[in-house]
Write a structure and sequence with these properties.
Layout (H helix, E strand, L loop, with lengths): L2 H6 L7 H4 L2 H23 L3 H14 L5 H11 L3 H9 L3 H7 L10 H18 L2
Length: 129
């Protein structure tokens, strides 16, 4: 089922900002916000793509339950930078799933990560008001 056809099965007036359970919405939006920052870093330092590629290659050496996502990451990391950046910030169910197995862990400084988490929490909670 494609995302468009899946979306068509939702009830009229469905708004994920309001109807999606808060913990799930918060996790998705935090991941998206962090990957937006990762995309900014990659624009500044495109050589960091090689770090993620090596990480994925290492993970693929083992028996990983997330292997389909790692194989997709390997493919995405081989594309031109602009394609990779588009995937990082894409708002779709497939991109959400891919970000859950991200090879970019540790690329955002812990203090900056906490600031992103706090801003995202505030934004998600305010959607519910």
């Amino acid at each position: 089922m494609t995302r468009a056809s899946f979306a068509a099965t939702r009830a009229p007036g469905y708004n994920p900002a309001v109807m999606e359970p808060l913990p799930i919405r918060l996790a998705r939006m935090r991941s998206l916000a962090l990957h937006r920052r990762v995309a900014e870093r990659l624009r500044e330092e495109p050589e960091l793509v090689a770090v993620a590629s090596r990480r994925v290659a290492g993970w693929l050496q083992g028996d990983q339950p997330s292997r389909p996502y790692l194989e997709r990451w390997r493919s995405v990391l081989e594309r031109p930078l602009e394609d990779l950046l588009a995937v990082l910030v894409e708002e779709s169910e497939a991109a959400d799933e891919l970000r859950a197995a991200s090879p970019f862990a540790g690329l955002v400084d812990p203090r900056e990560r906490w600031a992103i988490w706090a801003r995202t929490r505030e934004a998600v909670v305010s959607e519910r008001r």
